[in-house]
Each structure stands twice: as structure tokens, then as C-alpha cells.
Amino acid sequence: MTDPTTLIGYVLDSPWLLPLITLAVICDGPLPLVPSEPVLFSATASALADGDGLRIVALFGAALVGSLLGDALLYGAGRSSNRVVGGVRRDDGLGAWVRRHLHRRPIVALVATRLIPGGRLASVTAAGRVRLPLRAFVPATLASSLVWSSWMTGIGVIVGPFTHGDPLLSLLAGFLLALLVGGAAGIARRVVRHRRRAIASV
């Protein structure tokens, strides 16, 4: 039986790693329950342990490309059919906030929601649905993709010294950090929503 550490190490050292990262980032837009963050964390931590700065830059580039391509697909889905993305339309909460700010501050709207679980799906498809012009969408998605890619590879660099390049530890750390980030964002959303309701009831 193949040792899990050996298998994970093979994937992280595989020449297919960069296309895999790109594909994973594309897919976690419409499928936010299957996040790409743990794979990116693990690969970055492994590259840091190997002292391979060029690989870290390449991972950042792969994540950025995947983010831009995935956003383009979500934007197109939002423009082409409400039925495709009808489930992300909301009258309150995140969806309403995004729609209020998209035309006035598209960069703020897309950047602010990018690290929130489900925020990418809600904000980018909303941009397509409200027919946000490409001249406004392109710089907004570029800014949000740069912020997200920098944040994720940066966390991988932080994790690296603690995992010492161990593939299994890197992957476990990646999953743990993804859960922590998602949990913190979810708590922050609930706190803001509670405060908003408290103010409205006064």
C-alpha cells in the first residue's frame, strides 16, 4: 500500500501541480464547498521548505490565472442566465450588500467578499446579473484575484516553517487554515448581521 505522505509528496512535486492548482481555483468558484486553498497552502509550504522561490512565484501565478478564468466563467453565467445562478440571489445579507455596492464601488465589492465563504460566487455572478460593464468588472476581478492569491500564498509561506516541508503536515495545516478562515468569516458575517438587525429594531 502506498504511504499517504509519499502520495501527497508526489502530487506536490508533480509537473501537473500548476495546472491542477489552476483548475482547482477555477472550480471552487461555482463549487465553494470544494475549496482550493488547502492544495495551494500545501504546495507553497512545500516549495518554501525546498527553498524554491521560483515555484512559489509559479504557484501564485497559477492561482491568479485560475481566479481570473473562474471569475470570467461566473460573470458569463450571471449575464447569460438567471436560472444557472438563481440560487445565489438573496434579498438580504451578502447578496443585497453586493448588489448595492457593485455599480458604485465594484472593486470594493469584489475584494471585500472574496475571502468570505461563498462570497466569490455571490459577488461575481451578481456582477454579471446586474450587467456590470466589462470596463468596471475587469479591474475589480483583477484586484480581488491579486488580493486572494497573495493572501493564500502568503499563508502557505507562514505555514512552511512549522511543517518543515512534510507533505502530510502541510496538507493538514492547509485544511485547518481553510476551516479557520472560513469560520472566522462566517462569525464576522453573523456579528454584522446581528448588529444591523439590532440597529434596525431601535
Automatic annotation (TrEMBL):
It comes from the Bacteria. Residues 35-156 form the VTT domain. It is a multi-pass membrane protein. The chain crosses the membrane at residues 54-74, 137-162, 168-188. InterPro entries: DedA_domain, VTT_dom. It is found in: Cell membrane. The keyword Transmembrane helix applies. Its main location: membrane. Keywords: Cell membrane, Membrane, Transmembrane, Transmembrane helix. The keyword ATP-binding does not apply. PANTHER family: ALKALINE PHOSPHATASE LIKE PROTEIN, UNDECAPRENYL PHOSPHATE TRANSPORTER A. Belongs to the DedA family. This is VTT domain-containing protein. It comes from Pseudonocardia saturnea.
